[in-house]
Amino acid sequence: MPAKPPPSNRGARRGPHLRPLTSARNPQLKLLRTLANKRARRELRLMVAEGEDLIVAALAHGVRPTVLLIDAERADEIAPLLAQLGDVHEAYAVPHQLLAQASQLAAPPRLLGILPQPGPYAFRDVRFPPSLALWLAGVADPGNVGTLVRSAAALGADWVALGPGSADPFHSRAIRAAMGSTFAIPLLEGVRGEDLASRSGFRVIAAVVGDAQPPWDVNLTGPVVLALGGERDGLAPGLEQLGDGVPVDRVSIPQTAGAESLNVAAAGAILLAEAVRQRTSSPSRQRVL
Question: Of the N and C termini of the chain, which has fewer Cβ atoms inside 10 Å?
Fold first, then answer.
């Protein structure tokens, strides 16, 4: 019996052609350093994603890298993913030490990408009034912003709006904390209280510290925007911007006497989860106020 011919490689998926990158003065590494600046990120509408998990999340939502920096010593380990990125023309094999210097992670990734930022989004681009949404008024820590974006996406919010004083959701720490949710939910930037107040058909549920109703005693079945403020200044400045044009219910999460106040990301997750609980419980158990 004649021997079978070897299987054909025709049509096999190939990764991008990797160019060698050996100088710290390379323009792509210069761009990477430039993108550490918020103004540059905003002007260029670019972001940096470190690690294959974030690249996979981006691809799942139709966002493709424009530049890839790959650890030359570990490229074979991520060959299946690279096979999905064959159309990326700016792809570079980088010595491990040079990639480690460029990375902001303690353990440098095998893959680092520069990607277009999703959006920008405006109210006309998203569901409005929302069934459930989040407004961050002065949440200045990028890690908290990223965690809240992740919680909002996981618990079914329509969008997250970021007010003045809130951290850039495309900051590297915010992207890492969001764990891919940056691509999964619309992010509206620069949304002031006045901007929300110019709209109608929703209520604001404002998380405050002190004497207010617990969230499970307030109707969160929507359409509602959950409002969270900075851990130092709280939500008062944002609520002042809203004026009297939007109905506002203030809620406070009960805590053990003497305990430190909840981290804003934890408070946001609790409010989002309570909103989901109310919406998925039987109508006879929902308390309408």
Answer: N
